């Protein structure tokens, strides 16, 4: 029989990379990412015992993670209104220079994602995680048709903004 602790460890080990990517897209600073990841892990710890298999494990984990992330970001935005805006980029001097272009592109993508409203950001991040339209609908509570429409509009808007002027 599997204990809640071992079940939690198994779930986290299978989805740690997705949780890390989600945190990176929601938070620019390493410290804020660690805080967000800890909040997600605590929420998963509390929720894993209630997982009944009515959805896929991936959908369950992403639903919990995105709900925590949205609350975390909304709370951070309220706190930041009274503080000066921190730098959105974090440099890593330990990385080789041959990856500088890739890091810069990733920083631009992360910056653009963080500039989106939270519902749009959630849709794009779930799509980037490889979730199907049905899985995204299940996580967000939207209809599959609504998810498809919104993602199409978001892709068009992002593509339009990428064209150099």
Largest sheet: none
Distance, first to last CA: 61 Å
H/E element order:
HHHHHHH
Summed up, the helix count is 7
Rg, Å, rounded: 17 Å
CATH class: Mainly Alpha
Query: What gross morphology would you assign?
Result: globular
Structural class: mainly alpha
What's the CATH topology name? Butyryl-CoA Dehydrogenase, subunit A, domain 3
Average of pLDDT: 82
* CATH architectural designation: Up-down Bundle
Residue windows where pLDDT falls under 50 for at least 5 positions: 84-92
Write down how many β-strands occur, each being a DSSP E stretch of 2 or more residues.
0
* Strand coverage percent: under 5%
Give helix % range: over 70%
Describe the structure.
The chain has one domain: Butyryl-CoA Dehydrogenase, subunit A, domain 3 (Up-down Bundle), CATH 1.20.140. The protein has 165 residues and is mostly helical. α1 (4-26) crosses α3, α3 crosses α6 (133-140) and α5 packs across α7 (144-162). The protein is globular and about 50 Å long. It has helices at 4-26, 30-47, 57-80, 100-115, 118-128, 133-140, 144-162.
């Amino acid at each position: 029989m599997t204990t809640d602790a071992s079940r939690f460890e198994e779930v986290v080990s299978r989805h740690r990379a997705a949780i890390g990517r989600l945190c990176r897209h929601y938070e620019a600073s390493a410290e804020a990412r660690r805080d967000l990841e800890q909040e997600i892990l605590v929420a998963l710890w509390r929720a894993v015992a209630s997982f009944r298999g009515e959805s896929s494990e991936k959908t369950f984990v992403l639903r919990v993670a995105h709900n925590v992330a949205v609350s975390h970001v909304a709370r951070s935005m309220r706190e930041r209104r009274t503080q000066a805006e921190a730098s959105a980029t974090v440099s890593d001097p330990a990385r080789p220079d041959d990856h500088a272009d890739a890091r810069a592109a990733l920083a631009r993508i992360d910056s653009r994602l963080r500039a989106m409203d939270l519902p749009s950001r959630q849709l794009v991040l779930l799509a980037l995680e490889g979730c199907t339209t049905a899985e995204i609908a299940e996580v967000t509570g939207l209809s599959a048709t609504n998810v498809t429409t919104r993602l199409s509009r978001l892709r068009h808007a992002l593509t339009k903004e990428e064209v150099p002027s």
